[in-house]
Design brief:
With about 190 residues, the chain is of the alpha+beta class. It has a domain of about 120 residues: Transposase IS200-like (Alpha-Beta Plaits). It contains four helices and eight strands, in the order E-E-E-H-H-E-E-H-E-H-E-E. The strands form two sheets. Strands 6-1-5-4-7-8 form a six-stranded antiparallel beta sheet, with helices on both faces. A hairpin with a 3-residue loop joins strand 4 and strand 5. Helix 2 packs across helix 3. The longest helix is centred in the middle third of the chain and has 19 residues. The protein is globular.
Length: about 190
């Protein structure tokens, strides 16, 4: 594999810009008079911008989406299928009630926007096959976090460990142990 990526995306409306849990979204830096996005590994994310969160809530086209265990399992199957068809190497994934983490290796140097787009599109197709589309018309928020992983064993292992250590995933898998762990409790993360 030529490139390794840590991708994260949220379910629609469940984790808005301005959220107190932290968020990765462009925000205005008044001192620099510019937009900044805190999306680099090791840097702090933005925290609690209440006006931004309220504005985001007002723009919602439907209720927030939260995945059930069965929906997370459908997404899990689709992640594996998409990676297989694309010749990507899945390293780990965790599917929580309101967001998804995926670490993968890819041949060449495709834009990470294409990777996350394909994973979300095929996961949506799988969900739409078994369940009604959400009120908003979409399962996911636009875009997501795309962090390049250094092609070093310790860097890859660190990201895989982070994904494995999610507190309450519906489905969690990694190549390091090759098993899938299910948690039947709703995810608060």
């Amino acid at each position: 594999m030529d490139r390794f990526w840590f991708l994260t995306w949220t379910t629609y409306g469940s984790w808005l810009p301005g959220d107190h849990r932290g968020f990765v979204s462009p925000v205005w830096n008044a001192e620099q008079h510019s937009l900044e996005t805190h999306n680099e590994p090791g840097t702090d994310v933005q925290h609690s911008v209440r006006r931004l969160q309220r504005a985001s809530e007002q723009r919602l086209r439907g209720k927030p989406v939260y995945l059930s265990l069965q929906q997370a399992e459908a997404v899990s199957v689709q992640l594996v299928e998409t990676a297989t068809i694309r010749s990507w190497r899945l390293l780990a994934y965790a599917i929580m009630r309101n967001h998804v983490h995926v670490a993968l290796g890819v041949p060449g140097d495709p834009k990470p926007e294409y990777l996350i787009r394909d994973l979300k599109a095929y996961a949506s197709r799988a969900l739409n096959h078994h369940w009604s589309r959400p009120e908003s018309g979409t399962w996911w928020t636009e875009s997501g976090s795309k962090r390049k992983i250094e092609a070093r064993e310790e860097s890859i292992a660190s990201v895989v460990r982070y994904i494995e250590q999610q507190e309450t995933p519906w489905v969690c898998w990694s190549w390091m142990d090759g098993t899938s762990n299910r948690d039947q409790r709703p995810s608060g993360s």
